Structures are given as structure tokens and as C-alpha cells.
Amino acid sequence: MRATAAISHWLFALGLMIGIALGLAATRLYGPLQRDNAEPWQLQPEQSHHYRVAVALEYAHSGDLTTALGKLISLRPATDPLQTLADSACQLGSSGYLSSPSGIRALRVAAQFYLEQGRDGCVEQLLPPVTAPTPAASDEDSAGALAQSKPAPTKPPLDAVVQPTRLALPSQPAQRRFEAISLRSFCAVDRPAIIEVSVVDYLGRGLPGQQIRARWGAQEDIFISGLKGERGGGYADFQMAADADYTLDMPNAAEPVGASLRTGLCYEGNRESLKSYRVVFAER
Fold it and tell me: What is the dihedral of CA 247, 250, 254, 255, to 10 degrees?
């Protein structure tokens, strides 16, 4: 009898331990996942609109264009990151974002940012007009008004409303100018028939977010620097097709390179490939 009771107690303890072990395993495998901070490219579309405007506000404070463009590129846009900022501002401006002074200021700053970089959008037409300053009165008018006016109170009224500062949009956005300073061909088995472009400032630093245009026949394509961050902030590339002559320029920023680009057979060691090119556009 005692032996039977001892066995029962032992089996009960064993079952309890097995149950606890299975419970811990199930909790570890199927329990709630820990949530880490989301990367910018994981944001929902509505959140990404607000993120882009926040980047523009940060740029207005810091003036760091490289960091601002890097953050816009971190959203992994399918096209020009600055144009997606303009599109986001347009989307927010069309959905009630302009109903508050802070929203007006934010979108005005965003518009100023992308206009300075040569892009445009619709929010410029949605923003309320900037109030023109009142013309200054002449000395005679001021003296007459002062004689007829009542003494001003020593303290401002408590219900005085402070108007928010409004930023005026530039009438003609500043446009950077570039020049093709280097063009050379190369042969690489792992990089066949490709145009590699570097866009740099006058100090040789890569400039992301710049538009480069390839034209061949009646076709053209725009590609953007900085979308492949692992190759450098000013890097962009374009895949060539056989039997086509390509002209390369930067729209409204740089004249075409001096020669047309065409691929053809080349050899790296004893391995056959297709000729590629490297072009550098430098800020004047």
C-alpha cells in the first residue's frame, strides 16, 4: 500500500514537472512577440507622410541636407525621394492638415525645402497666401496720429493673440549646377553594360537625391543618386541595352556628357563581358 502511494506521488511530481516544462516551451514559442522600434520603411503610408514632413522641419532647423536626404531615402521610395516629399505634403494638405497654424507652418517649410531642390508639388497652391506687411507711415502721418491717439497702456491686454510667424516661399528656388568632369569606360564581368554615376559637391562629397537622365532614341529614363547607400551617397547606376547610343545629363542642372555611350564586347583578363562606363558630375 505504501509502495503504491509512493509511486502515485512520484508520478504526480513527474507529471507536474512535465506540465510546467511544456507550458514554458509553449509560452516561448507562441507567446506575444516583442516589438522593437520600426524602421522608417516599415511605416504605414499615413505615417510616412508625417515622417517626411518631420524631416523637412528638422532640415529647416539644422540645415544638414545630406542627413535630411538620407532620412528620406531610408523610407525606400520607388522614385525620387524629394518628389515623394512633395507628394506627401500634397496628400496632407488635401486632408485637413492645413486647418491649424502648426500644420500650415509645417507644410510651408516642407514646400520651401523641396522647391529649393528644384521639385514641385500641389501644396503651394493649397497654402494660404502670406499676408503682406503694412506699408510704413511717413513721419508727418506718424506725428499727426500720435497727437490724436490716446496714451498706450503700459502692459499688453491679456487677450492679445500672437500671430504665428509665416515663412515666405522663394519666388525662384535656388538651382544647383553641375558639370561632367570625368568619363571613362571599364570592363567587369560582374558589372556588364552599366553606367555608374557619381554626383559630388565642390569638395568631392557625394550628393544624394540628385536626378540623372539617360536618353536613347526617343526614350529617356530618370534615376536618382543615393538610393544604393552601400555604394555611397552620390552613387547611381543605369543598365544599358545593346545596340543603343546613350546620352547622359542632369535635367536643368548639367549639360550632356561630351560623347554618347554605347556598350560592346570587352575582356576582363580572359573572360568576356560588356563595356561599362563611370561618369562623375561635380558641382560648379
Answer: 20
Lateral strand order in the sheet of 247-249:
219-224, 211-216, 247-249
pLDDT tens digits, 158-179: 555 545 555 555 444 557 899 9
What is the H or E stretch that residue 61 is in? helix 45-62
35 pLDDT higher than 50: no
Pick the CATH number of 178-283 from 2.60.40, 1.10.287, 2.60.120, 1.10.3470: 2.60.40
Domain ranges of the chain: 1-33, 40-143, 178-283
280: its cell numbers = 562623375
User: CA 272 to CA 284: how far, in whole Å?
Assistant: 38
Strands 271-283, 194-200: pairing is parallel
- Compute, in degrees rounded to 10, the torsion defined by CA atoms 47, 53, 55, 58: -130
- Of the candidates 70, 93, 66, the residue with the CA atom closest to the CA atom of residue 81: 70
In the chain, beta strands by DSSP E = 178-187, 194-200, 211-216, 219-224, 235-239, 247-249, 265-268, 271-283
Give the dihedral sign, CA 152/155/157/160. Answer: positive
